[in-house]
Amino acid sequence: MSKIISIASQKGGVGKTTTAINLAAAIARNDFKVLLIDLDKKANAAVGLGFTREDVKKSSANLFFEDNIESCRYITKNKNLDIIPGSIKLNEVEKTIMCNGESIFMLHNKLENTAYDYIIIDCPPSLSLLVDVALYASDSVLIPTECEFFSYDDLIAMIQKINEIQTIKKKSKKTLVVEGILLTKFDNRNVFSYKIAEKVREMFPEKSFKTVINRSSHLQEAQYYGKDVISFAYNSRGSREYRKLALELLGLDKEKK
Ligand SMILES: Nc1ncnc2c1ncn2[C@@H]1O[C@H](COP(=O)(O)OP(=O)(O)OP(=O)(O)O)[C@@H](O)[C@H]1O
Ligand SMILES: [Mg+2]
């Protein structure tokens, strides 16, 4: 059975997609079979892994209807990493699921009994129905939080959303846990970054990842070249930090070679 992790935050630009791509790649390097599902109509995750929007014939939108994982997934250049890209068609999905009371189960049902060890879901920046569906399908949620005040402030609304979905899942004896809060875009020259980091750790002492993702131009550059940062610049800071995050999440001391 796969472990399903949503990367979610209603705040835009906090590093959800960057984390989804690089964490998925880092987990895959540890010999786990990983599927990355993009639930954002911007389709940044596939583009960041070298696909063009024209390459994408089927997307995560199809998963909500007649298609299954096998017919929507694409093989990436990374061994062990497949992707189901996002597309603008997710707009239609959202309209459809609004009219269908059963829709919260739709993704969950499609992700049961797959051959993947990990499924990472990149969520759109909202608390929309698509995010409800992703959280319902997930075992846990990783919340990237940029080291600035509004991002910290938005954490409360995200936690409330998680509580809401936990309550629905409990009725079917299923759980949703917070995998962890990940501090992103940390700027070690900015005193305020340290203050926000301290606040988050005070608020969620058990749930804050020890690994912090610093600002790094390699992360942006890798996306420009359509690669995860580990393949792009193995020894860069961004690569080291996402590999460390994967080890922390997997509970491993060192990487499998
Ligand atoms: N640690 C980092 N250092 C430098 N730039 C970063 C870092 N993390 C993300 N970025 C850049 O910040 C921008 C937003 O990142 P990303 O797309 O991952 O955020 P997001 O939360 O997925 O955004 P959205 O909410 O719009 O989907 C991108 O240009 C990305 O390259
Ligand atoms: Mg994104």
- Calculate the mean pLDDT score and round it: 93
CATH architecture: 3-Layer(aba) Sandwich
CATH superfamily (homologous) name = P-loop containing nucleotide triphosphate hydrolases
Percent of residues in helices: 40-55%
Determine and state the CATH class.
Alpha Beta
Shape: globular
Residue fraction in strands: 5-15%
Q: Distance between termini?
A: 24 Å
Describe the structure.
The structure is a single chain. With 257 residues, the protein is an alpha/beta fold. The chain has one domain (3-243): Rossmann fold, CATH 3.40.50.300. The chain has helices spanning 16-28, 44-48, 60-63, 69-72, 90-98, 106-110, 129-137, 149-171, 191-203, 217-224, 229-232, 237-250; strands at residues 3-7, 34-38, 74-75, 81-84, 118-122, 140-146, 177-184. A 7-stranded mixed sheet has the order 3-4-2-5-1-6-7, sandwiched between helices. A hairpin with a 5-residue loop joins strand 3 and strand 4 (81-84). Helix 1 crosses helix 12. The radius of gyration is 17 Å and the shape is globular. The two termini are 24 Å apart. The mean pLDDT is 93. It binds adenosine-5'-triphosphate and magnesium ion. Adenosine-5'-triphosphate binds at residues 12-18, 40, 44, 125, 184-185, 213, 215-216, 219-220, 223.
